[in-house]
Amino acid sequence: MATLKESHVGQTVKVKGLKGEGALKRRLMDMGFTRGCEVYVRKVAPLGDPVEVTVRGYELSVRKQDAENIEVE
To answer: pLDDT of 41-51, one tens digit each?
Structure first.
C-alpha cells in the first residue's frame, strides 16, 4: 500500500489508515490524519524531509519518518 511519503507535489490523496502504535498513532490522529480525509501535498523539502501538506484546511509539516506511517490511496 502507498504511503504519504511516496506521494508527489501537487497530488491530493485520501488517508486509508495509520500504521504504528500508541502515542505515534494518537499524535497523527490529533494532527487530523484520520481515515477518509483528503491530504494535498504542497511541498517537499530538497532532501525530502519534511513534507508540507494541507489537511482539513490547515497547513502542516510532517517528518518523512511520520509520513511513512500514513497509508494513502
So the answer is: 999 988 878 99
For the stretch 58-72, pLDDT in tens is 999 999 999 999 999
Asked if 7 and 16 touch (Cβ cutoff 8 Å), the reply is: no
Distance CA 55, CA 60 (A): 7
Nearest alpha carbon to residue 47 among 12, 13, 5, 2: 5
58 strand-pairing partners: 55
DSSP letter for 6, please: G
The three cell numbers of residue 18 are 495509520
